[in-house]
Amino acid sequence: MNVDVLVLDRNNNPIGNLGRKHFKVYDEGEPQTITNFAATEAPMTVCMLIEFSNKWWPYLVLALRDSYEFLNFMEPKDWVAVVSFDMNQQILQDFTQNRYEVRQALDTLRIPGFSEINLWDALAFSIDRMKDIQGRKAILVICTGVDTFSKLNYGEMLKIAKASDTVIYPVSILEFMTVRYGDNISSLQARNALTSIAKYSGGQAYFPRFEAELPGIY
Asked: Kind and range of the H or E element at 64?
């Protein structure tokens, strides 16, 4: 029998370079002999959820930059979907293993339609689409963390994230700007919201201040 194992540290980051000696297997309390041991990279199913509103043009630039950067880390066996959101969410590309199809979907993000940022609704929509997917799966949400007009409130979104088996990894496009223009109440609230949503889902939120941080995050 094969047993797949993922080992995480206290911050939910994977721990690599583990060997056979680091594991013990028991069956009803009886120690078992580990006959085969190998490290593998299991494919992931990722929904890339991208904030794309006309709230402020620098956010559009950052959202696109961060989205294209992810393509450099997409593995051949990974499945990736592209969903954008402003007032509504839009499926630009359903799950595919073809990175060129993902790029083509990103290439359509040029002129946003609305200034609203309905993050909670978009997350709930994406979580619902992921519910029947088996194996390793995650939502990579590239966003400010601001919500302006969702039907769901923040508390309801937290409950949905906690009840889901889909891990959420927010990557902030707001932090890059706050480093240059300073924090305010909105940016602090957005940071706390993304941190809590990620934590409730079993994921982690990232707040890159410089472009060079993205490869390490991905």
From this structure: helix 57-70
What is the rounded distance in angstroms from the CA atom of residue 126 to the CA atom of residue 110?
22
In this structure, which long-range contacts are made by residues 191-195, counting pairs with CB atoms below 8 Å and at least 24 apart in sequence? 191/145, 193/145, 193/147, 193/154, 194/143, 194/145, 194/170
Condensed to tens digits (0 to 9), the pLDDT of residues 27-60 reads 889 998 888 887 777 789 999 999 999 988 899 9
Q: Quote the CA–CA distance of 98 and 190 in Å, as a whole number.
A: 33
pLDDT in tens, 48-57: 999 999 988 8
Nearest 5°: CA angle at 126, between 124 and 127?
65
Given a contact cutoff of 8 angstroms between Cβ atoms, the answer to whether 51 and 83 are in contact is no
Cβ neighbour number for residue 116 with a 10 Å cutoff: 18
Residue 68 in this model has a pLDDT that exceeds 90:
yes
| 178 in Cβ contact with 145 (< 8 Å) | no
Whole-prediction pTM value? 0.84
Choose between 12 and 101: higher pLDDT: 101
- The set of residues, in sequence order, having a beta carbon less than 8 Å from that of 59 and lying 6+ positions away, is 51, 53, 144, 173, 174, 177
> Parallel, antiparallel, or unpaired for β 89-96 and 79-85?
antiparallel
- The string of pLDDT tens digits covering residues 138-164 is 999 999 999 999 999 999 999 999 999
* Residue 59 structure tokens: 């956010």
